[in-house]
Amino acid sequence: MADTIAVKREWADGATLSDADYRAGYERSLADPEGFWREHGGRIDWIRPFTRVKNTSFAPGDVSIRWFEDGVLNASANCLDRHVAAGRGEDTAIIFEGDDPAESRRISYAEALEETCRMANVLRADGVKKGDRVTIYLPMIPEAAYAMLACARIGAVHSVVFGGFSPDSLAGRIVDAQSGFVVTADEGVRGGRKVPLKSNVDKAIAIAAKGGQDVSRVLLVKRTGGEVAVDPARDVWWHEARDKAAATCDPEPMGAEDPLFILYTSGSTGKPKGVLHTTGGYLVYASLTHAHVFDYRPGEVYWCTADVGWVTGHSYIVYGPLANGATTLMFEGVPTYPDAGRLWQVVDKHEVNIFYTAPTAIRALMGQGDEPVKRASRRSLRILGTVGEPINPEAWLWYWRVVGEERCPVVDTWWQTETGGILIAPLPGATALKPGSATRPFFGVRPELVDAEGQVLDRAAEGNLCIADSWPGQMRTVYGDHERFEQTYFSTYKGKYFTGDGARRDADGYWWITGRVDDVINVSGHRMGTAEVESALVSHKAVSEAAVVGYPHDVKGQGIYCYVTLMQGEEGSEELRKELVGHVRAEIGPFAAPDKIQFAPGLPKTRSGKIMRRILRKIAEDEPGALGDTSTLADPAVVDDLVSNRQNRR
Ligand code: WT7
């Protein structure tokens, strides 16, 4: 096979699955999905076993996805109780590593169960019922996992909102989910800096009230002890309620297709969508992928550096690892605090075996040189993973050579919020690796390449990435808007799930994800719609029109490039530029801060008024020679100004 990488130590000997196992398993999973998933559905505990396995349709106008539909289970009981019942109560469930390197703690399965039960009882006493939506806006502390599992325990649907989102963004999610309950903390701490979570929640609740959604209860975790406003009629301190709550709580029997959580994600148009995942299929899929893609072995320490505010945190910090009885590390901080050696220092401190992070972090650390890595022994490391955006071969090779010393397989895992779990990734030891390729589909996954006309391409080809049939971890609907679900994912190529990504399949059948083909950008692994940034910009009084595109950025993967047309009489100054950056940060969140703002007297529009983004992308990429045909523009002259004032010159 062309250009594959060999693992130095004879790793394949120790691997759980071989290449032949993968091929046989994959073939069987496609030939007999019922049999395959019936068997693997049994890896979790069912209160009432399922008899039906797959009942799914991607048919236009009738998209419906059900897995294990007559089974009854509880996700929190699967993640906690069953390990305690099996005598593993003293095993470590969570290692908490604080932002401050002096702070860490090990939490056993028995303790995690007790804390989860107490929180479940507190939520119940506060009136949370089965099916109610609970918004969780917490830092990376164990209480975030307890809160998710407590919701799952009583059948409430959690909606975790990343702590980096602004009050406005939080409010939008509270309103859309019709959520009357919020779990938050006084403040978060990241990289030595405080994040005013409670104050953001107070602002968000006021905004949500105007949007017609009241929040009647806020459960407040004391993290820093910082001064916060407490409304005694609405806010309850967790540490006070906890001590009064019972330490046991019967898990609610849930149907396999009862909702487990909503997680908001950005698309090419409109407001963020509430991606809805249900209980049975999601848990089976998160658990099976975690076990195989990371080749998890009992007793090992597994660390995923994501935040629980993103799907990676849901599936591969909380649900997958805990369903498998693993030890999962929760890290509150950032890779560069107190210095660029932090991640590797933590690897040594807790003897981490499996490490999973994002290309943006790898690139940022690569830029700091090898010394901070080499300061740590990293002896414990066995597998390295990446997720969130395409990884460039240079970063892959640095990860492989410098961090893993050519003995740890690198698993590049491609998936999405919508897919619930990993769809394309190598299996360590079984799959020959190619730097920059997510390699092969997981069991049961049928990727397809489709051209613009909807023709399926075979053999080596490049096109739009679709998935031809359902897998258990797939999202079930857009919360409250099934039509939008069908429209977004199943209408472009009828009968197929369209991912929004482009991909290439090489002659060995390996998959290379080339990035989004829609108006979604991926900035440091944070997904956002260019339309969201545009609407934040035009909400500023000086702005008349805005168009936003992504451009290649060495560390972030993509940077945010904004073309802004100002109102009559406004002057484009450095000061206004700063103000607009601050405005977008405040509207969406700090991670959405524009990298480049170009003041433009006009935008390139067709005669029917449509902005030609292709031209804007090329200018942002500093390729003014590759604009293509501009003759269909209403005013071709605007292009000259855009080119001569471009902000990204390499
Ligand atoms: C988008 C999904 C999946 C959890 C984190 C992001 C991009 C994700 C890879 C990868 C190339 C990747 C895709 C995808 N993406 N993983 N290994 N290689 N691209 O979840 O926020 O829903 O974003 O991230 O473009 O569509 P998300």
From TrEMBL:
It comes from Plantimonas leprariae. Mg(2+) binds at V538, H540, V543. It catalyses: acetate + ATP + CoA = acetyl-CoA + AMP + diphosphate. ATP binds at G388, E389, P390, D412, T413, W414, W415, Q416, T417, D501, R516, R527. This is Acetyl-coenzyme A synthetase. Belongs to the ATP-dependent AMP-binding enzyme family. GO terms for cellular component: cytosol. Residues 83-470 form the AMP-dependent synthetase/ligase domain.
